[in-house]
Backbone:
């Protein structure tokens, strides 16, 4: 049952907590003013206590913002009001200020959980999790650990089913796919704690399982002409253009992932057999790609006339000193945006335009040309054809052939 507090007292406690957390003076003043507006709204309606219902009513009447503000667009002016309502609600429920997600240069682990988190990272590395997946997993875990720290949990054995329930209530407004990922992260982490003796009980059994259907989003589909225009827009008369041209060709024609492009080494290029052999970063599978004619000449042009003299074994490097490989978090999205604009391609709102979308274009083109799912799975480096089957939704021509004629169906009755 929800515990209600006098709204004026609750607002004062939240302001006091913000001061303790070293929020800036201007930020605190802004929240104080926002709380006063909420208190006045409650007073006008004869409400003495804060409740989630009151918060939703306030946002609806004053900002025309519904309860689904986390899934639907909301007025920009409502952003501060939403945060104020959430501060009051979270503090009343948890007794702490739940920090917003912020990007940190380096996460500072709470001292009481530092040893456990270090051991868990080692466990993930030993299980050979993909670097990008491991980063996402740890990020979700760090939010949970921060929540434990804010709730004054000093030992893993103090984690209780009630505390897990409170945390799940806190994350409940998020998208169902995000919730599913968080639940999986919590379950695996709690199993780790129990199996390694950090907790006496297996709390992973207290984490609910989410029943959901597998419905991946339909991949972004580029027309072959647009892909050609994109690649032709590259100016190969300068070092950057030579490098970018080779990268775009390898992704568009071989279907390499961005991580594999960044990890490609000079030793992976076998010019005698005209092949590229590498271990995929995501699946850890060793695969071999052909060095197609245009890709081969693009690589030669880049290596001979554009790549700086440096000691790194990686093929693609930055062209500004120090000449190093791309960063581990670089997704090369700016590269695509640059040449989409130069090519004059208009991208509809909501359509993805990263390098990964060129893989989608390759898969759709192969499907239209009659390639089997098994072949496309091998080309894209998927573990199984389930991931590849989503491209069936992009084959409009063959999908039309599957459509039924209602008149023909009714005539057979």
Residues:
């Amino acid at each position: 049952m929800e515990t209600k507090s006098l709204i004026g007292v609750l607002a004062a406690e939240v302001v006091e907590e913000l001061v303790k957390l070293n929020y800036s003076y201007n930020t605190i003043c802004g929240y104080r003013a926002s709380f006063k507006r909420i208190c006045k709204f409650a007073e006008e309606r004869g409400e003495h206590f804060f409740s989630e219902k009151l918060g939703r009513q306030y946002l609806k009447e004053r900002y025309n913002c519904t309860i689904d503000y986390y899934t639907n667009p909301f007025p920009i002016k409502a952003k501060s009001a939403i945060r104020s309502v959430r501060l009051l609600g979270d503090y009343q429920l948890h007794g702490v200020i739940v920090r917003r997600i912020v990007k940190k240069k380096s996460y500072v682990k709470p001292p009481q959980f530092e040893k456990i988190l270090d051991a868990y990272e080692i466990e993930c590395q030993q299980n050979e999790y993909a670097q990008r997946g491991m980063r996402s997993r740890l990020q979700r875990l760090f939010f949970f650990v921060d929540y434990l720290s804010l709730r004054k949990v000093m030992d893993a054995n103090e984690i209780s089913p009630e505390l897990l329930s409170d945390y799940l209530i806190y994350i409940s407004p998020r998208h169902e796919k995000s919730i599913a990922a968080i639940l999986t992260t919590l379950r695996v982490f709690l199993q780790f704690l129990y199996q390694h003796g950090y907790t006496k009980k297996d709390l992973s059994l207290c984490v609910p399982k989410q029943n959901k259907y597998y419905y991946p989003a339909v991949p972004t589909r580029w027309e072959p002409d647009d892909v050609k225009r994109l690649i032709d827009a590259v100016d190969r008369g300068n070092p950057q253009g030579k490098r970018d041209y080779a990268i775009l060709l390898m992704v568009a024609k071989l279907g390499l992932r961005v991580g594999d492009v960044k990890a490609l080494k000079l030793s992976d290029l076998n010019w005698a057999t005209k092949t590229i052999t590498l271990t995929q970063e995501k699946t850890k599978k060793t695969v071999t790609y052909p060095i197609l004619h245009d890709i081969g000449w693009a690589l030669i042009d880049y290596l001979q006339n554009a790549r700086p003299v440096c000691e790194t074994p990686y093929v693609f490097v930055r062209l500004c000193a120090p000449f190093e490989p791309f960063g581990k978090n670089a997704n090369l999205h700016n590269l695509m945006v640059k040449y989409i604009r130069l090519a004059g391609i208009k991208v509809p709102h909501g359509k993805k335009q990263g390098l990964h979308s060129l893989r989608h274009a390759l898969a759709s083109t192969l499907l239209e040309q009659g390639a089997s799912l098994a072949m496309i799975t091998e080309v894209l480096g998927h573990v199984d054809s389930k991931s590849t089957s989503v491209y069936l939704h992009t084959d409009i021509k063959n999908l039309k052939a599957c459509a039924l004629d209602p008149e023909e169906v009714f005539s057979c009755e």
Observations:
- Residues 165 and 207 are 8 Å apart (CA to CA).
- The two ends are 57 Å apart (CA to CA).
- DSSP finds 18 helices and three strands in the chain.
